Hints:
The chain is α/β, with parallel strands linked by helices. It has 2 domains: 12-217 and 416-431, 3-Layer(aba) Sandwich (Aldehyde Dehydrogenase, Chain A, domain 1), CATH 3.40.605; 222-409, 3-Layer(aba) Sandwich (Aldehyde Dehydrogenase, Chain A, domain 2). It has helices at residues 12-24, 31-47, 49-60, 64-71, 74-88, 125-136, 150-163, 176-183, 196-208, 231-243, 263-278, 294-302, 354-362, 377-386, 422-427, 454-463, and strands spanning 91-93, 103-110, 113-117, 140-144, 169-171, 189-193, 213-216, 222-225, 255-259, 308-311, 315-316, 321-322, 325-328, 345-351, 369-373, 391-394, 415-416, 429-436. Strands 10-13-14-9-8-15-16 form a 7-stranded mixed sheet, with helices on both faces. The protein has a 6-stranded mixed sheet with strand order 5-4-3-6-7-17, with helices on both faces. α10 links the parallel β8 (222-225) and β9. The protein is globular. The structure holds nicotinamide-adenine-dinucleotide. Residues 117-121, 126, 144, 146-147, 175-176, 179-180, 183, 193-195, 198, 201, 216-218, 250, 340, 342, 368, 410, 415 line the site of nicotinamide-adenine-dinucleotide.
Amino acid sequence: MTALSAPPRQAAGTLLQAQRTFFATGQTKPYDYRLAQLKKLKDAILERQDAIVQAAKDDLGRPEFEGYFEVGIMAELSHVIKKLKGWMKPRKVGLPLAQMPGSAWVQAEPLGSVLIIGPWNYPFQLVISPLIGAIAAGNCAIIKPSELAPATSKVVAELIESTFAPEYVAIREGGVDVSQSLLAEKFDHIFFTGGTRVGQIVMEAAAKNLTPVTLELGGKSPCIVDADINLEVAVRRIVWGKFLNAGQTCIAPDYILVKEEIKPAFVAALKQRIEELYGEDPSQSPDLSRLVSDHQFDRVVGLLAGEDVVVGGQHDRADRFIAPTVLNNVDWNAPTMQEEIFGPILPVLGYEKIEEAIAQVNSKPKPLALYIFSNDKALQNQVLSATSSGGVCINDVILHTAIWGMPFGGVGDSGIGAYHGQNSFHTLSHHKSVLKKPFWIDLDWRYPPYADKLEFFKKMISLS
Length: 464
Ligand code: NAD
């Protein structure tokens, strides 16, 4: 790794101008350069694994095992390193008869400078994953990590500033003011991960400069549970996915819609599994994260008011701890059903007929993820075709997002655009159409005077 000493941080406009000048040299474009930078990034992450995991612990009380989810972004990096050469190859396109002879292809080119704004919940991987895409696509980048995960922000800053020159990849730490000073500049792409409200602010700022955006947002991801399942396995998977990172996961199952006939057994199984995974006193469990801030703690605890708490409910503000909590008999209009929970609270609602559950899901904005637990293929297909969501996982949770060959992104209120692996390369490239014609022949059917060529032209159209 080339160790660079951290340069003084310039103002956003000056920094972007330096990146423009560097980008214009063309150095970021060749395959060898991109590959070398990706490998440098991989080495830099490997060297700092412990610091990354420690930072997730400092910011979110993250257990070490879950801290490694941040480092797990290395899997994407390895995938991109392996596949990049193939992705960069121009894609040949066949010509219609009237265009022959000639050749046509689509060639990916980098956009320029990409602004990456990250959230606090997976504060390392959610800025590094878009960065992998930006580098793979041949761009420069500026990262703005979340100020609410300060320990991780510091680790990312040290990593970036010791690995890359700022005219190639730079970082600007700070809060809303820093974010807004960056958003005032004309970037070539803005990659934002965060809440829907801030997503709107980002898109408004981008519109002023006609800058394309990728918005990775949140929402309420439903989990539909049919009666025909392996209850033990299903509940274990749901409990893991919900209480991971104390529920502060954008694709966590937000609420359960369970077939009424198994609801009592389902709730009992939740209670049993939660105890098995986190012990009788979950505040003593080494495997539960904490809420990121007092503000988030107060907001999530506020959702418990007036609810039928059947599991958990204990909380301690000094420790920002909230026990894995299950709410039963939740009213569809309760506050907990009006906003993304983003904490360790799981409301359970029942349905009689699958059509009811589908209608309820469809009455809310399109979610980032949707989960179906069922062995009934017809029911699986019915839910798949009658609902819209960023992604779907059948009989499990979360894991669909760790398959690098699949796009990850929202739809409607849960986001615009997608990334991961080749999809990041695609999103952060311009796909340029090129047609090349030879000189040796120049048929004159398209040139005026048109009069005697019309019949031939009409025939050609009908043949195409
Ligand atoms: P947030 O929208 O509050 O903040 C995200 C980033 O935007 C931060 O870097 C912050 O500094 C910046 N920001 C905040 N207010 C701003 C403003 N007014 N102007 C400009 N920039 C501003 O989101 P968060 O609280 O950090 O993260 C939680 C949200 O992110 C949840 O809704 C969650 O679902 C979503 N999320 C989505 C994904 C995904 O991949 N789709 C992943 C993680 C989190």
